[in-house]
Write a structure and sequence with these properties.
Strand content: 25-35%
Number of helices: 6
CATH topology of the largest domain: Methanol Dehydrogenase, Chain A
Helix content: 10-25%
Oligomer: single chain
Largest sheet: 4 strands, antiparallel
Strand order of the largest sheet: 1-2-3-4
Order of helices and strands: EEEEEEEEEEEHHEEEEEEEEEHHHH
CATH architecture of the largest domain: 8 Propeller
Mean pLDDT: 90
């Protein structure tokens, strides 16, 4: 997932053939690509799981914060990494690497030994890494994951905001930040990858739909273009008939995006989440926006007749097995509060029998029992009624309110 950049870089008096990487662990590594020698490794974003990298053996010095088996710990960077799959860009003319940096922590919890009712989460197994974003509530999460650090305790670790994303211009030789711009704060924005050009330009898209253009050497903002679409990919540039273009694929999605509702900063909440390729040129016209988003209403659910114990057990199983893909809110997968009656009628056949397997919903018959599925269904009906009553009381014509739910822990 992490891009490897091959370059010839002047280090000291020598020009060396190197491999460079902004690793998920928060450290920027430079290695000699002929010998494999680790030349340098310094953190390009905030790191507290290690005190540094010992160059000779190439091993990190672990801190007490890395030991989350002894109790929940806030660890920087999060499981998403200090840099994830969004491409970074090296510009030989400026000598800088442009990194979509993720200054975000996880609260790591050993589910087997922290006293919560959740002991397993699909794809996280017996651990969980909670993003302490604006929705973080340690008291509300305690029944599921056991005691967690309070927001005040987490905030004491940093003098800055707990969660931020940046475009960071990094000097790989001096191993320091030259310029940066905060792209999102307070939550994960899932902002896009970077591209730099020989014309001293850097391009990066943001989740709010804006394409930003910077001066590569100074970081001066040169242009902001609103596209109306969430931008996660990196732009590309090409020329046709002597005219240079910049193009970028837009739209919120991907295999990891089912873990939580669409971020509130995303253009995909304001406009339809249309996957498009947008091409730009000098003196081009405004970008046509997708249609305004108009979510379907929650239909009146079936009768809510299950016991509170069944609903509670259903919530536990939902978090364990279903929240990996399904969030209760606008997302790229169906909001299961909005199931039609015919889906309710064959719920067991969908989950156990694989009735929707051609659509990507495989059978869970080898994992869940019939009783498990009944309880999950009861929980979803209960959540549907909460959303339906809220909708009726507010006279809403669309539903953007997300019912509080432990899926905010964002298992991935």
């Amino acid at each position: 997932m992490q891009k490897l950049i091959l370059a010839d870089v002047k280090i000291g008096s020598d020009t060396r053939a190197v491999i460079m990487q902004a690793n998920k662990n928060g450290f920027f590594h430079i290695l000699d690509r002929r010998t494999g020698e680790l030349i340098s490794a310094k953190n390009f974003t905030f790191v507290n799981w290690a005190s540094g990298i010992d160059i000779k053996p190439g091993r990190p010095g672990l801190t007490k914060q890395a030991d989350w088996y002894s109790g929940p710990k806030i660890v920087y960077p999060s499981w998403a990494g200090g840099h994830s799959w969004q491409p970074m860009s090296f510009n030989p003319r400026s000598g800088l690497v442009y990194i979509p940096a993720i200054d975000v922590p996880s609260v790591w919890v050993d589910l087997l030994h922290n006293g919560g009712q959740i002991r397993f989460i699909n794809s996280f197994f017996t651990t969980i890494g909670v993003f302490p974003d604006k929705t973080y509530d340690a008291a509300a999460l305690k029944p599921y994951f056991g005691p967690l650090p309070s927001s005040k305790k987490l905030e004491a670790i940093r003098h800055d905001k707990l969660l931020r994303e940046f475009i960071r211009a990094w000097d790989p030789v001096a191993q320091k930040t030259v310029w940066e711009h905060e792209t999102t704060s307070g939550l994960r924005g899932y902002d896009g990858g970077a591209m730099s050009t020989a014309g001293n330009l850097v391009f990066q898209g943001r989740g709010n739909g804006e394409l930003w253009v910077y001066a590569a050497d100074t970081g001066k903002v040169l242009k902001i273009i609103q596209t109306g679409s969430h931008i996660m990919a990196a732009p590309v540039t090409y020329a046709v008939g002597g005219m240079q273009y910049v193009a970028v694929q837009v739209g919120y999605g991907g295999t990891g995006m089912g873990v939580g509702a669409i971020p509130p900063t995303s253009a995909a909440l304001k406009y339809e989440n249309a996957n498009r390729i947008i091409a730009f040129k000098l003196d081009g016209s405004d970008v046509p926006k997708p249609k305004a988003r108009n979510d379907d209403l929650v239909p009146k659910p079936p009768a809510d007749e299950a016991s509170s114990a069944a609903i509670e057990e259903g919530e536990t199983k939902f978090v364990e097995q279903c929240s990996r893909c399904h969030a209760l809110g606008p997302n790229i997968t169906p909001d299961l509060r909005k199931m039609l009656q015919e889906v309710h009628d064959k719920f067991k056949d969908v989950v156990l029998g694989g009735a929707f397997a051609p659509r990507g919903m495989e059978s869970f018959g080898d994992i869940l029992s019939e009783k498990d599925v009944e309880n999950i269904h009861a929980y979803l009906i209960n959540q549907s009624w909460q959303a339906y009553r809220h909708q009726q009381a507010s006279g809403a014509t669309s539903l953007h309110t997300r019912v509080p739910n432990p899926d905010r822990a964002e298992p991935h």
